[in-house]
Amino acid sequence: MDNVLKALSDPARRAMIVSLHREDGQTLRQLEKQFDMSRFGVMRHLSVLEEASLITTVRKGRFKHHYLNTAPLREVQDKWFRPLLEAPAGVVCTG
Fold first, then answer.
1. How far apart are CA 89 and CA 77, in angstroms?
2. Residue 10: which residues within 8 A CB-CB, separation 6 or more?
3. Which domains does the chain show, CATH number per domain?
4. What backbone torsions phi and psi does residue 61 show, to the nearest 5 degrees?
5. For helices 39-51 and 11-22, what crossing angle results, to 10°?
6. Spatial CA neighbour of 69 closest among 81, 53, 58
7. What torsion, rounded to 10 degrees, do the Cα atoms 69, 75, 77, 78 define?
8. Each residue's pLDDT tens digit, 45-70
9. Whole-prediction pTM
10. Which of 20, 29, 61, 90 fits a disulfide with 68 by CB distance 3.0 to 4.6 angstroms?
């Protein structure tokens, strides 16, 4: 879970996740065109996302296609955020 939170801590990586959510299966070249950084910068961010299992890659010929994996996001939501958002026993929320 720490790898996921670390990966999400960077705005560029969050933007890449959003981009892959909009259009899954993008190549490095497609992602590179969207961000104001070098090819190696994009590759570095993709590496962090892959280490956190937030993306998976599939090689098709010469190109690697990047796909969003939402399972780690659900795990963080279920194990970390959901318990914090639920009211403790005996507390009445008037939200």
1. 20
2. 45, 48
3. 2-85 (1.10.10.10)
4. 65, -125
5. 80
6. 53
7. 140
8. 999 999 999 999 999 999 999 999 99
9. 0.84
10. 20
